[in-house]
Amino acid sequence: MLERIPLHRNSFWRVAVAVASAALMTTSASAQTISLGAAGDFCVLGLDGVKLSMSNPQTSVSGNVGLGPAGIQNFSDGFIGGTYTVDSTANNSKSNNVVIAGGTVTTDLSVAGADAQAASAAASALAPTQTFGAIKDALTIFGSGGVNVIAIESITFSGSTDKLTFDGGPSDVFIVNVSGSVKLSHKLSRIQVGGGVSESAVLFNLTAAHEPLTVSGGATLAGTYLAPNAGIRLSPAVVIGGVIGGGDTSLTSAAHVECVPFEGGKACVPDGGACSSNSDCCGLFCDNGTCQPG
């Protein structure tokens, strides 16, 4: 967590971004990792100036939700399984029927926003290990162990067999930089993981300025989707991971986000190593404080 500095908000934000950028981006090609910092505490996070919408009683988020600086809450119905955190400058006045299991708190979310922006910049700066153009049909991308940096022009899926699979071992991490849009419109379309890859090891960095992620029909996506320059529209979709968006970010029509935090910036513990939970281990299980095969 970055140290808070008693500056004017805009000055603080610029300083925080600069510090976070330096802290979150590695310079060694053999040790490329990205951390979401404080932004990683949220299953759904709306960044500065976001209009964050939830509608439909069946729309749900299993974990924490954050409404960033100068954001606007546009809730009507839904369920938040964790805490709803509201920046002190955000407008949370709209009445709604959203059930919030963890309660509502007000706090400064500028650090989380700066960390998300810094993570996006850091991901964009990584040299790709594999490059693809516009993906419109089923494709499997194989990892080579360690951090895989994937550059993609765009993804457009509209059929039942359209699936993008990230396949590899438990040590594989996929940082996916997409310059265009990601659109899925069929219930059976998928962005998924295979082999020993976990949803916690996939980060999409969507840098386009106009709705870079649009999902309808109930398609399923694995990983965390970071869209700092524009909104995210899930109407509906199932995300096993998380979403971080600016602009208009909406969860409607029974959209569901099952929180699986991105942990690609954290080294995992090998077989026989000390652990406190399964997430510490490289696809293994934490049994009595030691990573072991299942």
Write the layout of secondary structure elements.
Elements: H1 9-24, E1 44-46, E2 51-54, E3 60-61, E4 65-67, E5 72-75, E6 77-80, E7 84-86, E8 97-100, E9 104-106, H2 110-125, E10 130-135, E11 139-142, E12 147-157, E13 163-168, E14 173-178, E15 182-184, E16 190-195, E17 202-206, E18 213-227, E19 232-245, E20 248-251, E21 256-259, E22 285-287, E23 290-292
Parallel strand pairs: 1-4, 1-19, 2-5, 2-20, 3-6, 3-21, 4-7, 6-8, 7-9, 10-12, 11-13, 12-14, 12-15, 13-16, 14-17, 15-18, 16-18, 17-18, 18-19, 19-20, 19-21
Antiparallel strand pairs: 22-23
For this entry, give a set of tags:
294 residues, mainly beta, 2 domains, two-stranded antiparallel sheet, 11% helix, disordered N terminus
Total domain units: 2
Q: Based on helices, strands and strand pairing, what is the structural class?
A: mainly beta
| Number of continuous helical runs | 2
Order of helices and strands: HEEEEEEEEEHEEEEEEEEEEEEEE
Cα end-to-end separation:
34 Å
The gyration radius over C-alpha positions equals 18 Å
Please provide the count of β strands: 23
Unreliable runs: 1-31
Largest β-sheet summary: 5 strands, parallel, barrel
Residue-averaged pLDDT? 87
**Strand share of the residues?**
35-45%
The backbone outline, from C-alpha atoms, is globular
The portion of residues assigned to helices is 10-25%
Strands in their spatial order, largest beta sheet: 12-14-17-18-15
